[in-house]
């Protein structure tokens, strides 16, 4: 009996040990978690980070109103490829090709010099502490609030990637302006964002501009478009490919430099500039949300904030993963 009891005890101990070991292994293999991001991450190590970033963003937007939209776009294009890790900021080198020349980014994303300036100012107050990934998240929030949109507390604690992926950036994870509604829904769901999140985040097109080459087909060939709106856009966007490709038009015809809910009102009037804008109000499943946001700016603001926070939570590098870059354009 004593031997049996000892064996049973040993067996139980072994089982507990195995289970504990498995739990430890599982915990070690869990990917970087957004739960590790906190609003007060820099409270002790860089208490001036938010004021420093906001001041630099204000200065940049004062020089060029369009820059606010560009900074928001950088954060979006960063988070959808590899997660919010500042991979989008890495320059090409002789041995490395980054994401800047990927189809969704080439001649599209901009604002890198502004990010450099913000990073320089942050480094002057807290050297080697604040990541470029966090700077993108904070600058996006500041751009929204400075241009009249909602404010929110940004979760921080992300670290920077040491590499980027041209292939991933080109893989379709960033939905193109020709997207169908299903493609938009699927691309956002693949990043853990709901249809509501997608429609709310699309509202960032209440500011910013697009190149003629991205909306030419819509203004000449599509029928779900206000005729006078199309004619006005055609004045600065010739039908012939290669002619005026880089001519710009505001995404929001009503208040292009103010963050509001006019984007949704435009869609109801069939004045969405991009195909992927107007497809959100075209007899499909998102029509009711568009109508809600067009009538209730507070609801739009609330849902936009929720979606921005969720987007900022996409696969961040935390803990000992990644690094804090000294220069946002290259790994240390």
UniProtKB/TrEMBL annotation:
> Where do the annotations place substrate binding?
175
Q: Quick one: which residues bind heme b?
A: 205
The UniProt keywords, alphabetically, are: Calcium, Disulfide bond, Glycoprotein, Heme, Hydrogen peroxide, Iron, Metal-binding, Oxidoreductase, Peroxidase, Secreted, Signal
Cellular compartments annotated: Secreted
Show the CDD domains listed in the entry.
secretory_peroxidase
Q: Which residues form the active site?
A: 77
InterPro entries documented for this protein? Haem_peroxidase (IPR002016), Haem_peroxidase_sf (IPR010255), Peroxidase_pln (IPR000823), Peroxidases_AS (IPR019794), Peroxidases_heam-ligand_BS (IPR019793), Secretory_peroxidase (IPR033905)
At the top level, the lineage of the source is Eukaryota
Q: List the disulfide bonds.
A: 46-126, 79-84, 132-328, 212-237
Say which family it is in: Belongs to the peroxidase family. Classical plant (class III) peroxidase subfamily. Belongs to the peroxidase family. Ascorbate peroxidase subfamily.
Sorted alphabetically, which PANTHER family does this protein's record hold? PEROXIDASE 67-RELATED, PEROXIDASE 72-RELATED
Which protein are we looking at?
Answer: Peroxidase
């Amino acid at each position: 009996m004593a031997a049996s009891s000892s064996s049973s005890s040993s067996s139980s101990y072994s089982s507990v040990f195995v289970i504990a070991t498995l739990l430890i292994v599982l915990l070690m293999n869990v990917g970087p978690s957004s739960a590790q991001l906190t609003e007060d991450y820099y409270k002790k190590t860089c208490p001036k980070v938010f004021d420093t970033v906001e001041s630099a963003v204000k200065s940049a937007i004062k020089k060029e109103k369009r820059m606010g939209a560009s900074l928001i776009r950088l954060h979006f294009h960063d988070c959808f490829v590899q997660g919010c890790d500042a991979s989008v900021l890495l320059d090409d080198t002789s041995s490395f090709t980054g994401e800047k020349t990927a189809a969704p980014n080439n001649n599209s994303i901009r604002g890198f010099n502004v990010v450099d300036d913000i990073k320089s100012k942050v480094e002057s107050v807290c050297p080697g502490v604040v990541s470029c990934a966090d700077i993108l998240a904070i600058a996006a929030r500041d751009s929204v609030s400075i241009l009249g949109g909602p404010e929110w507390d940004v979760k921080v604690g992300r670290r920077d990637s040491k590499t980027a992926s041209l292939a991933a950036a080109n893989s379709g994870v960033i939905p193109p302006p020709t997207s169908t509604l299903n493609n938009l829904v699927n691309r956002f769901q693949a990043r853990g964002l709901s249809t509501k999140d997608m429609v709310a985040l699309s509202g960032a097109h209440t500011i910013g501009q697009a190149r003629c080459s991205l909306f030419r087909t819509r203004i000449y060939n599509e029928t779900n478009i206000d005729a006078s709106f199309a004619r006005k856009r055609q004045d600065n966007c010739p039908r012939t490919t290669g002619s005026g490709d880089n001519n710009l038009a505001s995404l929001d015809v009503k208040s292009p430099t103010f963050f509001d809910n006019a984007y949704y009102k435009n869609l109801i009037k069939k004045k969405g500039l991009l195909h992927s804008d107007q497809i959100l109000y075209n007899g499909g499943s998102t029509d009711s949300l568009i109508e809600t946001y067009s009538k209730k700016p507070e609801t739009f603001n609330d849902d936009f904030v929720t979606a921005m926070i969720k987007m900022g939570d996409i696969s961040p590098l935390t803990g000992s993963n990644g690094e804090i870059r000294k220069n946002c354009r290259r790994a240390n």
